[in-house]
């Protein structure tokens, strides 16, 4: 393969670190900062609308975020360019850690111990064996399937839900709207790793919470707009839900006056559940460029009509 240039269209990104990562990943790939004629590949964050007219040969857009709704809603994005979602081992490992941490935190109700320690109280606390804890993952894509497999490995009674049917050893897999309620039925910890589409916007709402076990916990690491925030506050108020961990919120950064910040049962992280590792991401992009140049199908390509 002759040398290929990739435009780095990531505002505030660490160009030097990414350039070094690409140099390491493939001698045939050069990361450049300025649009040049003939550029076929771009690495983007959000959607740099102003750049597309300067890139008439753009063939593949590699999105640094796995959430690609901004690219799909930007009319400036050329329809002729393929959009590839970021799916790389560093991000998957980080997300898996975050989900495991939050599920164990809820499973063991560590927040009760933290509160007890504040009062120097030796709390006698019971909890079930992990195989008696029903945990479900909404979305069995790159991140959800890795999380579900790890939860299974840690002994949890794990279910997963996706649009098309999946088969993950030791995970009860449900598919489509017809099986959604069976998936949700009696879950004690629910994890959301869905993409944001018209079908999934607001999916974490009172109707869904009513199908979980009383006192269930919610973990949302997907997109803030999956959650109906008012429904979460009332479900926590009534005890229908016991707790929530939110890495994503409707408005980001979460405004200082937002009630989530000081809610005793809401744990906030600043949308950093899964950061990308430039080294493994560059290696993945190099692999995809080589496939594309060889006339093979790209992997993790966004289907525009499907919305993810
Ligand atoms: N918090 C963070 O730091 C962070 C970092 C990266 C990504 N994310 C977010 O994580 C989420 C998941 O990313 P990903 O890369 O794993 O996505 P993905 O690979 O595209 O997987 C999406 C999964 O959701 C399923 N799905 C989509 N629409 C559905 C529907 N209407 N009903 C049932 N299942 C549906 C898909 O089903 P099929 O398998 O049948 O297609 C697939 O299993 C995204 O929202 C992304 O923005 C967050």
CATH homologous superfamily designation of the largest domain: NAD(P)-binding Rossmann-like Domain
Lateral strand order in the biggest sheet = 8-7-6-9-10-11-12
Q: What's the CATH topology label of the largest domain?
A: Rossmann fold
Give the rounded overall mean pLDDT.
96
Question: What percentage of residues falls in helices of 4 or more residues?
Answer: 25-40%
How many separate structural domains?
Answer: 2
The 3D shape can be described as: elongated
Alpha-carbon distance between the two ends: 30 Å
CATH top level of the largest domain is: Alpha Beta
Main sheet attributes: strand count, strand direction, barrel closure: 7 strands, parallel
Bound small-molecule species = NADP nicotinamide-adenine-dinucleotide phosphate
Work out the oligomeric state of the chains in this entry. single chain
Structure summary, number of beta strands: 12
Query: What is the ordering of alpha helices and beta strands?
Result: EHEEEHEHHEHEEHEHEHEEH
Structure description:
- The protein has 308 residues and is an alpha/beta fold.
- It folds into two domains: 4-88 and 276-293, NAD(P)-binding Rossmann-like Domain (Rossmann fold), CATH 3.40.50; 90-268, Rossmann fold, CATH 3.40.50.
- It is built from nine helices and twelve strands.
- It has helices at residues 15-25, 69-72, 89-107, 110-118, 142-153, 180-184, 206-209, 229-238, 278-293; strands spanning 4-9, 29-32, 41-44, 60-63, 82-84, 134-138, 157-162, 172-175, 189-192, 216-220, 241-246, 266-268.
- The longest helix is centred in the N-terminal third of the chain and has 19 residues, at 89-107.
- The radius of gyration is 21 Å and the shape is elongated.
- NADP nicotinamide-adenine-dinucleotide phosphate binds at residues 66-67, 85, 87, 91, 95, 139-144, 161-164, 193-197, 199-200, 221-223, 247-248, 271, 273-274, 308.
- NADP nicotinamide-adenine-dinucleotide phosphate is lined by residues 66-67, 85, 87, 91, 95, 139-144, 161-164, 193-197, 199-200, 221-223, 247-248, 271, 273-274, 308.
């Amino acid at each position: 393969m002759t040398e290929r240039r990739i435009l780095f269209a990531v505002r505030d990104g660490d160009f030097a670190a990414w350039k070094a990562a690409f140099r390491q990943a493939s001698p045939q790939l050069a990361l450049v900062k300025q649009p040049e004629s003939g550029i076929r590949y771009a690495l983007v964050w959000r959607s740099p609308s102003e750049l597309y007219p300067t890139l008439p040969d753009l063939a593949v857009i590699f999105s640094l975020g796995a959430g690609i709704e901004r690219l799909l809603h930007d009319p400036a994005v050329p329809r002729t360019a393929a959009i590839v979602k970021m799916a790389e081992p560093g991000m998957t490992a980080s997300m898996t850690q975050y989900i495991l941490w939050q599920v164990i935190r809820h499973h063991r109700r560590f927040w009760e111990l933290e509160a007890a320690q504040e009062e120097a109280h030796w709390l006698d606390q019971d909890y079930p064996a992990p195989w008696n804890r029903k945990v479900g993952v909404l979305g069995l894509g790159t991140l959800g399937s890795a999380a579900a497999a790890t939860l299974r490995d840690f002994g949890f009674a794990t279910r997963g839900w996706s649009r098309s049917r999946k088969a993950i050893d030791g995970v009860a897999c449900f598919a489509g709207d017809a099986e959604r309620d069976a998936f949700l039925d009696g879950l004690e910890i629910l994890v959301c790793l869905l993409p944001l589409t018209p079908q999934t916007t607001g999916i974490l709402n009172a109707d869904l919470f009513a199908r979980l076990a009383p006192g269930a916990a919610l973990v949302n690491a997907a997109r803030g707009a999956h959650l109906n925030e008012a429904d979460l506050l009332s479900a926590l108020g009534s005890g229908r839900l016991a707790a929530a961990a939110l890495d994503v919120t409707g408005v980001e950064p979460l405004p200082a006056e937002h009630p989530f910040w000081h809610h005793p049962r809401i744990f906030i992280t600043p949308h950093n559940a899964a950061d990308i590792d430039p080294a493994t991401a560059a290696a993945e992009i190099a692999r995809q460029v080589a496939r594309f140049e060889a006339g093979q199908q790209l992997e993790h390509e966004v289907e525009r009509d499907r919305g993810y």
